[in-house]
C-alpha cells in the first residue's frame, strides 16, 4: 500500500514539474511562434536536430543551452553580491512552488486509499498561491536594488508599486469567490464547478462570478508581469528594468521564472474560473460510470483529428529547398501519429472487449482529467500570449488609476453583491 | 483661416469601459493568427537563402562593375570624375597611358572599397563615358577578410550585368 502512495506522490511531482518547468520551452516557443503569426511573420523555424524542427520547438532548447553556457558577467559596482545572486532564485522558486498546489485531476481512489492529485498535497491551495505569488516580487525588487543601476532600481520600484496596487484587488476578487465556493481547498472549488446551473450551463466560476473573473484575470496579468502590465521591464523606457544587469543563467532564471509564473497564473485561472480538470457537462462520477462511451468517443474523435492534423502537416510543414533533410520530418511525424493512434486503439479495444477493473478506470479517468487540465492550461497560456501581442503597455499613471480607481472599487462592490445574494439565497 | 476640429475619443461609455476595444483588437490579431496558422503560405516571408529574392529591379544599386568597349577593352578613361564625386572617397584610381590608339588614358589600377561605399550611385552619375555601373544585381557581398572587400579592376571588369 505504501508503495502506491510513494508512486502517486512521485507521479504528482513529476506532473507538476512537467507542467511548470517542462512547459517553459513550449511556452517560449508558443510565444514566439504566435507572435510571428499574429504579425504575419514566421517566427523561429530553422533550428533542427537531424532535420527535426518540431515546428521550431528545437529553437527553445538551443536558446536554453546558450543561456547555460554564456559568460556570467557581473559589474564591479555591485556591492550586495549575495542579494544580487539570490534574487533570481527567489523569483524562480516562488513561481515554481506556487504551481505545486494545482489539482491536475479529481482525488484518485486506488483500493481504499484516496490521493490528492497535486504536487503538494495540502488543502489551503488559494492561500499558498497568494503567499508565494506575492513573494516573487521580492526577487524582482531585491534584484533591481542590488544591481546599482538606475534603470534596474526604477524597474523594481515600479514592480513594487504595481504589486501593491494589484494584489489588493486580486485578493478582494478572490474573497467574493470564496463566498461563492465556501472553501479554500482547490479540489473542492473545482468539484463545485462540475455542477450545472439551470440544468445546462456549466457552473464555472466565469459564469457564477463574471466580474471577479475579469478582475482576477487582469490582476493575474499584472502579477505575472506580462504585457500590458510589464512596466517593471519596460524595455522601451528603462532598458530591461530589473534584469538589466543580469546575464547568462541568472537572467535565465528570471526568464524561466516569468514563464512559470505565467503558467501558474493560468493554472490558477483555469482552476478558479474555467472548471479546472472538469470536462464541461461530464463530471468525474459520470466519466467513471460511462467509461465505455468515453472510450468509444475517443476512438471516433482521435483518428479524425489525427487525419486533419496529417493534412495540416503535409500542407504546411515543408521546407522551400527540395533536397533538404528538414523535408523528411513530415514523413516521420505522420508515422509517429499513426503509431500513437494504433496503440490507443489497441489499448481501448482491449479494454472494451475484456472490461476494465475499477482501479484502472479510476486511473484512466484521472489521465483524461489531466489531459483536460493540460489543454485548458495551454489555452489559457495562449490567451496570455495573445493579449501580449495585442495590447500596448500601460503608462504608469494609467496603470495605477486602473488599479485603485477601477479594479479596487469594483472588487469591493462585487463582495457586497455576492454576500447579498448568498444571504438572501440562504 | 479655417481650422479643423479633431474629434476626441475616449469620452463615450463604450470607450471608457475599455473592454470592447480590447476584444476588438484581440479579434484582429486572432484573425491574423488563424489565417497564417491554417496556411503558412499566407505569410510573405521568404526563407532566404533557400529562396532568393525575385523582385530586384534593373535600377537596383548593387555591387559596381566596369563596362567594356565593343572590343572588350576597358571603357574607363581614368578621368577621376567618379572618385571626385564619391562622398565616401572609396574609389582608388591609378591612371596610365593607353597605347592602342583607342583612347588616351585608361586606369592601371581601379579599386573600390565596398566596406566604405555607401551605395549612393554618385559614381555612376558622375561618369562621362558610362564606364561604371551598379546594375549587377548583387545585393550581398561577403568576404572573410577586410582586404577582400576591396574590389580591384579585374574583379570589377568581371562582374556581369544582372537580371
Ligand atoms: S556608390 Fe557612392 S559611395 Fe559607392 S563608390 Fe560610388 S560614389 Fe562612392
Ligand atoms: S569610371 Fe567613369 S568617371 Fe570614373 S574614372 Fe572611369 S571614366 Fe572617369
What percentage of the residues of chain A does DSSP assign to strands (E)? under 5%
Describe the strand arrangement of the main beta sheet of chain A, using strand numbers: 1-2
Taking the alpha carbons of the first and last residues of chain A, their distance comes to: 43 Å
Average pLDDT confidence of chain B is 87
Report the end-to-end length of chain B measured between terminal Cα atoms. 53 Å
Q: What is the string of SSEs of chain A from the N terminus onward? A: HHHHEEHHHEEHHHHHHHH
Lateral strand order in the biggest sheet of chain B: 2-3-5
Number of contiguous helices of chain B? 5
Q: What is the helix fraction of residues of chain B, given as a range?
A: 25-40%
Poorly predicted regions of chain B: none
Number of strands of chain B: 5
Q: Name the shape of chain A in a single word.
A: globular
Count of DSSP strands of chain A: 4
Topology:
The complex is a heterodimer of chains A (426) and B (163).
Chain A: H1 2-20, H2 23-38, H3 57-69, H4 81-99, E1 105-110, E2 113-117, H5 125-146, H6 150-181, H7 186-192, E3 196-197, E4 201-202, H8 205-208, H9 210-223, H10 248-273, H11 284-289, H12 291-316, H13 329-354, H14 358-388, H15 396-425
Antiparallel strand pairs in A: 1-2, 3-4
Helix pairs in contact in A: 2-3, 2-10, 2-14, 3-10, 4-5, 4-10, 5-6, 6-9, 6-15, 9-10, 9-15, 10-14, 12-13
Chain B: H1 13-17, H2 19-38, E1 65-66, H3 81-85, E2 91-97, E3 105-113, H4 122-126, E4 132-133, E5 150-151, H5 153-158
Antiparallel strand pairs in B: 1-4, 2-3, 3-5
The complex binds iron/sulfur cluster (2 copies).
One iron/sulfur cluster is lined by residues 85-88, 90-91, 112, 117-123 of chain B.
Amino acid at each position: 500500500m505504501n508503495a502506491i502512495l510513494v508512486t502517486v506522490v512521485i507521479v504528482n511531482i513529476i506532473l507538476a514539474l512537467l507542467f511548470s518547468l517542462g512547459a517553459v520551452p513550449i511556452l517560449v516557443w508558443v510565444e514566439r511562434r504566435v507572435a510571428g503569426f499574429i504579425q504575419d511573420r514566421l517566427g523561429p523555424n530553422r533550428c533542427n536536430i537531424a532535420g527535426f524542427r518540431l515546428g521550431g520547438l528545437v529553437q527553445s532548447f538551443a536558446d536554453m543551452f546558450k543561456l547555460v553556457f554564456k559568460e556570467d558577467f557581473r559589474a564591479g559596482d555591485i556591492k550586495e553580491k549575495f542579494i544580487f545572486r539570490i534574487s533570481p532564485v527567489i523569483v524562480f522558486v516562488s513561481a515554481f512552488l506556487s504551481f505545486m498546489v494545482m489539482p491536475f485531476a479529481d482525488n484518485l481512489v486506488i483500493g481504499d486509499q484516496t490521493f490528492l492529485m497535486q504536487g503538494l498535497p495540502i488543502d489551503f491551495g488559494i492561500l499558498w498561491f497568494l503567499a508565494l505569488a506575492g513573494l516573487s516580487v521580492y526577487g524582482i525588487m531585491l534584484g533591481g536594488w542590488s544591481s546599482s543601476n538606475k534603470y534596474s532600481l526604477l524597474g523594481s520600484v515600479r514592480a513594487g508599486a504595481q504589486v501593491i496596487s494589484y494584489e489588493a484587488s486580486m485578493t478582494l476578487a478572490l474573497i467574493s469567490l470564496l463566498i461563492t465556493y465556501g472553501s479554500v481547498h482547490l479540489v473542492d472549488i473545482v468539484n463545485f464547478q462540475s455542477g450545472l446551473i439551470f440544468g445546462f450551463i456549466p457552473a464555472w466560476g466565469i459564469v457564477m462570478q463574471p466580474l471577479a473573473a475579469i478582475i482576477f484575470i487582469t490582476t493575474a496579468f499584472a502579477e505575472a508581469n506580462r504585457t500590458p502590465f510589464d512596466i517593471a521591464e519596460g524595455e522601451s523606457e528603462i532598458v530591461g528594468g530589473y534584469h538589466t544587469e543580469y546575464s547568462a543563467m541568472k537572467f535565465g532564471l528570471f526568464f524561466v521564472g516569468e514563464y512559470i509564473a505565467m503558467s501558474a497564473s493560468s493554472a490558477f485561472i483555469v482552476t478558479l474560473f474555467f472548471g479546472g480538470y472538469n470536462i464541461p457537462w461530464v463530471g468525474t462520477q459520470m466519466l467513471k460510470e460511462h467509461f465505455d462511451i468515453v472510450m468509444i468517443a475517443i476512438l471516433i474523435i482521435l483518428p479524425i483529428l489525427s487525419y486533419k492534423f496529417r493534412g495540416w502537416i503535409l500542407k504546411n510543414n515543408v521546407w522551400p529547398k527540395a533536397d533538404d533533410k528538414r523535408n523528411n520530418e513530415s514523413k516521420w511525424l505522420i508515422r509517429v501519429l499513426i503509431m500513437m493512434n494504433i496503440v490507443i486503439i489497441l489499448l481501448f479495444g482491449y479494454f472494451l472487449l475484456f472490461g476494465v477493473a475499477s482501479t484502472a478506470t479510476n486511473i484512466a479517468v484521472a489521465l483524461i482529467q489531466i489531459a483536460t487540465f493540460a489543454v485548458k492550461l495551454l489555452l489559457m497560456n495562449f490567451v496570455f500570449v495573445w493579449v501580449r501581442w495585442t495590447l500596448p503597455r500601460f503608462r504608469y499613471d494609467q496603470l495605477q488609476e486602473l488599479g485603485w480607481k477601477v479594479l479596487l472599487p469594483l472588487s469591493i462592490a462585487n463582495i457586497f453583491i455576492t454576500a447579498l445574494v448568498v444571504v438572501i439565497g440562504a | 483661416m479655417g481650422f479643423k476640429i479633431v474629434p476626441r475619443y475616449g469620452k463615450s461609455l463604450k470607450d471608457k469601459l475599455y473592454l470592447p476595444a480590447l476584444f476588438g483588437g484581440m479579434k484582429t490579431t486572432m484573425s491574423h493568427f488563424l489565417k497564417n496558422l491554417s496556411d503558412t503560405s499566407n505569410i510573405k516571408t521568404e526563407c532566404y537563402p533557400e529562396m532568393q529574392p525575385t523582385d530586384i529591379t534593373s535600377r537596383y544599386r548593387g555591387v559596381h562593375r566596369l563596362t567594356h568597349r565593343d572590343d572588350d577593352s576597358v571603357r574607363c578613361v581614368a578621368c577621376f570624375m567618379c572618385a571626385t564625386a564619391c562622398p565616401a572617397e572609396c574609389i582608388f584610381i591609378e591612371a596610365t597611358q593607353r597605347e592602342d590608339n583607342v583612347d588616351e588614358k585608361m586606369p592601371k589600377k581601379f579599386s573600390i572599397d565596398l566596406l566604405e561605399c555607401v551605395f549612393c550611385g554618385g559614381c555612376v552619375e558622375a561618369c562621362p563615358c558610362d564606364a561604371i555601373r551598379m546594375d549587377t544585381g548583387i545585393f550581398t557581398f561577403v568576404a572573410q577578410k577586410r582586404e577582400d572587400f576591396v574590389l580591384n579592376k579585374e574583379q570589377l571588369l568581371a562582374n556581369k550585368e544582372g537580371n
